[in-house]
Amino acid sequence: MTRFGYTLFTEQSGPRDLVRHASAAERAGFDFEVASDHYFPWLSAQGHAPYVWSVLGAVAQVTERVDLATFVTCPILRYHPAVVAQKAATMQLLAQGRFLLGLGAGENLNEHVVGVGWPSVDVRHAMLEEAVHIIRELHTGELVTWEGDHFRVDSARVWDLPADGVPLGIAVSGDRSVERFAPLSDHLIATEPDAGLVASWTEARGGRGPGGSTRAIGQIPICWDPDAERARQRAHQQFRWFAGGWRVNADLPSTRGFAGATQFVRPEDVAATIPCGPDLDAIVESVRPFWEAGYTDVALVQVGDERVDQFLEEVAPELLSRLRAAAG
To answer: Which of 82, 113, 161, 286 is the most buried (most CB within 10 A)?
Structure first.
């Protein structure tokens, strides 16, 4: 059965609002909640970027049922993997087993802030692979010393560990990243409804594909509003960066870079890729490619902070009912 989640949109809402949205999303019936781990919004118009680990710690205390996840954390520059291991273990204890650590190779937008330069994609992937091994080692509870190509760990131990550990999801985008990271991850994370990606991931794991305790987690933006034109304008203002694609977006260094890269993207271009307006059936059809591609979990991103409360309270329960009926 496909599970449907809600994205705590940390780029468009402040920390207290995000915690309130998380509680409302659980009441609305969502199965899980994810949040990005960013230092910057993509566009200045979004206006927010709180520290997601503090937000999720608070969310764990105002929710009881929904699973929680970072979507995703980059453990290679802004954070040392030993620190990520500690944060994830603490978060799992606060969430009482509901937390999944989503990992990825990051974006220049967020990682440049520590001033050490932005590595090429092959180096980033090598760093991520090494970081995953360090996190796994530290989650054993043993004393860890590590001397690798990219990281050193000196006599580190995570003292507060959940009994059942912390499951890891890794974001992948192509055959090379699938081959490298599928054997290291518990779950697949991706942003495109690509059946070939799911099949490659399954093959790389020796036939152990999504289903049961193994998830394939996707994400899709929507812009619900009673007024379709207003929704299109808001989606263009807040989410036109989406048109650039991951390979471009990962290397852009600033909100100015995203603004420049998307200056010729029109509202109608955004509306062609993001369902905008009150039509719930159109939203269902936009999500359909994910479960048809083999994804077990799909997180919705409601674009526009000003409509989040109304969406969660008045619209989400009916939308979830339609999604579950369509997914079967």
So the answer is: 82
CATH level 3 topology of 3-327: TIM Barrel (3.20.20)
pLDDT band for position 120 (cuts 50, 70, 90): very high
Q: How far apart are CA 182 and CA 173, in angstroms?
A: 11
- For residue 261, the model assigns a pLDDT of 87
Question: Taking a C-beta distance cutoff of 8 angstroms, is the pair 73, 84 a contact?
Answer: yes
The whole model's pTM is what? 0.96
Do 35 and 74 contact (CB within 8 A), yes or no? no
